[in-house]
Structures are given as structure tokens and as C-alpha cells.
Amino acid sequence: MLDLVFPPHCVGCGKVGLSWCQHCLQELSQQPLQPHLRELPPMSGIIATAPHEGKLQEAIHALKYYGVTELATPLAQRLFTCLQATNWTYDTIIPVPLYITRLRERGYNQSQIIGLKLAEALNMPLVPTALERQRQTTSQVGLSREERAKNVDGAFRAASNMVTGRRILLIDDVLTTGATLLACAAALFDAGAIAVYGITVTAARY
To answer: Which of 16, 78, 134, 190 could be stapled to 49 by a disulfide with Cβ–Cβ 3.0 to 4.6 Å?
Structure first.
């Protein structure tokens, strides 16, 4: 009944009827891979599939804020294809976690559902409980590089029984400065991981 009174609009183009229409889905599938590599030691490598703009930016926005969780599949496919061009060696996939209150508000972790689809494609375990965001952090949007790093410093804790001796592939939706991935990696290394890689759907032009 709510859909009759307030019909959904496509987040991508505004068309009435669906939160993400077939035309935008097709356009999303046609977005080219533009791999963006960054060197952020001590991480072994970080890669994003394309810049954070256009249809990809709209798709992440729809997944993250409008509950269009079916977009996790085409976004994970981009990650899978991008990874095929690397020589990375990893054995465990871990999504960047949300703090518990944010997770309850949203109802899901967008990085986790993308990671789940990627794990299925790679036939590899996804271990979302191996990494915990142990304190609430403010939104990184609008913060400087230094403020971002300070905001997430010490915000994560990893379970040593799940990561010791492991080579980790971290999953997130957007790469900006890399502060969040680096903070996650620090916790994973402290818990005994021997290598940490990071992959995101997009990278901001920062």
C-alpha cells in the first residue's frame, strides 16, 4: 500500500516503479573497468575498479542508503574481474565492519553483502566476525586526510584465532584516502595476519 501512495523511484534515473530500473542495471553492467592501484604500506596492495562517479557512484548510493541490495551482485562481479588481473595471494575475505549501532540502523553492511557475492565467485570463505569496529566513528565525509586517519585510529579489533597466519583480502565500497583500510589492516596485523590486501568498487579522486 505504501508503494501505491509513495511509489519507489529509481535511484539511478528517477523513473517511477523500481528502486533500480532495468535500464540503469544494463548501464551499470557496461561501465568499464578502470583499475586504480595505490601503494599504502604496510598493506600489500590496494585496488579499486573505477573512479567514484557516474553510474557506479549512483549504484553504491542505492545499495548503501536505499536498500537496493541486489546491486551487490554486479558490483561484486566487478571486483572478481579486477582481481583476475592481479597476482595477489589471499585465503580469507573480510569486509570492513560497521559499528553495531550503524548496522542496526541500516539493517545490513553493504561491504559484507558485496563480499559475500565475491566469496561465492572465488569459492573462498568470508569471515565477517574476524574484524570488529569497537567504537563509533564519525562519518569520514568532509574530513581532511589527517582527520580521517585520526577518526579511525584504533577503531578496529581483530580476532587472532581467525586471522593468525592468514592472507587477508579486505572489502569496502569506496576508497578515499585509505585511512579506514589502513586502520583495519593495523588491527589484522596486530592479530597475526601475514598479509593484507584491499579492494573497493570505486576510488574517490582525492
So the answer is: 78
**Cα–Cα distance for residue pair 92/125, rounded to 1 Å:** 6
Q: Return the SS3 of 146.
A: helix
Residue 2 in this model has a pLDDT that exceeds 50: no
Task: Read off the pTM.
Answer: 0.90
134 to 49, 62, 98, 158, 159: CA distances (angstroms): 29, 27, 9, 10, 12
What would the grid cell of residue 140 be? 569520514
pLDDT > 90? residue 111 = yes
pLDDT tens, 139-151? 666 667 676 776 6
pLDDT at 6 over 60: no
Closest C-alpha among 79, 80, 74 to residue 59? 74
- CB contact set of 25 (below 8 Å; sequence gap of 6+): 74
Q: List CB contacts of 48: < 8 A, sequence separation 6 or more.
A: 35, 36, 38, 175, 199, 200, 201, 202, 203
| CB neighbourhood size of 144 (10 A) | 9
Locate 38 and state its grid cell. Answer: 595505490
The string over 148-175, giving b where at least 16 C-beta atoms fall within 10 Å of a residue's C-beta and e elsewhere, is: bbebbeebbbbbeebbeebbbbbbbbbb
Query: Taking the domain 33-203, which CATH number applies?
Result: 3.40.50.2020
